[in-house]
Here is the input.
Amino acid sequence: MKKILCGIDFSGIQSFLYNISGEKAARFLRARSEYLDVLLDKAAQELREACGGEMLYKGGGRAYILTEGGKEKTACISDVERDLNNRLLCDYRGELYCAVGTAETSDEELQADSNRAFHEVSRAISEKKMARYSAEQILELNKAPIEADRRECKECRRTDRLNPNGYCAVCAEIMQSSGGSGVDFQSYANHAQGIRRLAVVRADADNLGQAFSECGGLAESKALSSALREFFKEEVPRICGKFPHTAVIYSGGDDLFLVGAWNEALDCIRRIREAFGKKRGGSLTLSAGIGMFPPKFPVKQMALQTADLEEAAKEHPDKNAIALFDRRFVFGWVEYEEQVLREKYEPIAAFFDKAPEQGKAYVYRILDLLRGMEERVNIARLAYTLARTERMPKELMNQIFEWAQDAKERRHLECALTLYIYRRRERED
Ligand SMILES: [Zn+2]
Here is the structure.
């Protein structure tokens, strides 16, 4: 039987979410992300009501629907798409755009191999995104009279008609939908161990395109997408719920965005990664970027810098990696767990936790020396510093000295010491 595979894709999401700078920006970040989710839901719902069909997959700003084939359906889909974008253009001044891509297919083709159809939909969506709004639509927008009472919204800085509190209609709705409560970045940072910092975590599944293309028929693709949905929509919030000062800002499709007290968020993503690794016979992996920020840091910069770290993790051979705080600290997950934490962090923490107060100063000194390790003279200074560190066991001393002389081990060691300093940092810092 003839079918049409139809993909709905929202663009402008990143900017809508993070391009905010008001004082409530952080507090309502999750509500903002939920708002977008609802918008995508409504668009998919509208298309299904008008044209029928079943929803195959939704998440990450995209939804796939399978409808019956035929010219009539194609026309119906185009109508819905045009209406949707007219409204988006009007409500969000062109910031959000919804591309709908379609591919003609059949039950027989989908059962045997669904790749061609999905690729065609993706290609159609990309083409639409390049063209975006038609000249006609833009003209229509510009014809609308410019109200004299437009001012800049306190939250999103977009120029619009504002309510008496100084918020645009979109921000006002988002704030109301969250019932006034939100994510409290300051309180999370206050509850962090050691240094009062937030960690922002962005992660997504590795090589998913390949996983889907290896699926063959539609039934298998559906099973994969429902496993992903179950994981990101249910398991991630469940794991995160065990960490009281960490919140899921977004989790769906194949990616997630968390914010929390830095040590909690870090433990949380380790648990998530472990759980994800157990799905589907251990065939799935994810890569994460973790940024560390003071709670008042601009949300947009948190999002961008952490996205950059996530990208660094994705560049790691075989992916399945973590980029921690800095592009220099990119490790495979197993490497991080085994060589950074178990092998180095643990014995270092065990020793320095019991070391006399002045002993802590040596952690900083060792780290400083490691950072300038290219100069040979530092090796001698490191040996001297280690020897002067009161009561340091000979074994640990020798190990640190050895690690310091190998580029890879040295990076592990630097990361372990950095983690230790963050954990032990006095509250006043
Ligand atoms: Zn606003």
Summary: The chain has three domains: 2-146, 185-327, 336-424. The domain at 185-327 is CATH 3.30.70.270 (Alpha-Beta Plaits). The longest strand covers residues 2-11.
